[in-house]
Amino acid sequence: EHLDEYFAACDRLLVPGGRMALQAITMNDAHFDYYVRAVDFIQKYVFPGSCLLSVRAMRKTLLRTSLSIESCLDIGQHYPPTLQAWRRNVEANRVEIRALGYGGRFERLWDYYLAYCEAGFAERFISDIQVLLTKSVRS
Prior knowledge:
Layout: H1 3-13, E1 19-27, H2 29-35, H3 41-46, H4 55-62, E2 67-74, H5 79-92, H6 94-99, H7 105-122, E3 126-135
C-alpha cells in the first residue's frame, strides 16, 4: 500500500550517488498478488497492518524513482535453523517467560508463529533479502 511513498521518500532523501541498504522479508512473487489482498495469521495476530515485500513489486516501484539495485542477496536459507534456535531458546526459558506474566495463549501464539515462519522459509514461500540501492548521479 505504501511502497511507492516509501521508495519516493528514500529517493528524495538520498543525495545523487548515495547508497541505501535494505533488508526485508519477502513473499514469493508467484503468491504476492493473492497475499496483498488477504490477511494472514501474522498480519492478524503478530504484526497487524504489516505487509511483506516481493522482489517483483520492489523492482516495479523502483522504476518510478532514480534508485537502482546494485546488489541483492537472498539470505532466506539461513532462517529455518535460526527460527529453530529461537524456538529452542523460548522452550528453555519457559519458566522465566511465565514469571514475566506471559503464558498460555502468548506461548502458543509465539510457538506457532516461529514454526509457521520456519515452514515458510524452508519451503521458500517467504525469504529474506539484503539489497543495496544506489541513487543515480544524474538525479
